[in-house]
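Morning. Coffee machine broken again, so started the prediction first thing and wrote up yesterday's gels while waiting. Chain of 202 residues, entered below exactly as on the submission form.
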Amino acid sequence: MQVRFSSEDSFRSELADLLSIYATVDRIGVNRVGVADTVGCANPRQVYDLVRTLRGAVGCDIEIHLHNDTGMAIANAYTALEAGATHIDTSVLGIGERVGITPLGGLVACLYAANPEYVRCKYNLGMLREIENLVAEAVEVNMPFMNPITGDCAFTHNTGIYASAQAIMSNPSSYEVLKPEDFGLTRHITVGRHFAGWNTYS
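Came back before lunch.
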């Protein structure tokens, strides 16, 4: 049996109180302590400082639960990992209370950008779109078109905005940090109404 102790509203609590409680339950022998940004008010600096401090105070695993009220959940999750967190709570499409928690796909995209080889080896990336489509259908929501990795626009390039089709095809990494093929997806190139010159047609 695994035992986790978690505080609520950690980022609006007194640090001394948090550390005292966490250190006590760590000595008792819990497997994991949890930090919660219950109202989504934390920023990456606050997350880093708290998790880093906590990492020095306990020997057990550290889990973090981040709400996305201010749009910081993915950035905060990545920062928490840098600071020493071992577990991140995520949900498919970020679905959760109010505006949700750290979205699985967005965090995977962030981790992939930092270390593609590690993420390719650790996760079955080709399943991400299938899982997100399954959940979207089950809860009757539309997949956001700007969703990281799986949104309709994630690997779509408009040659009239910043690049020619030739440039994108010859060196996709100039315009993409994620490889669509690693996720079982393909890139799309559309011709916009504002052309970027002769190379648009080359």
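Residues 5 and 69 are 24 Å apart (CA to CA). Going to sketch it on the whiteboard this afternoon.
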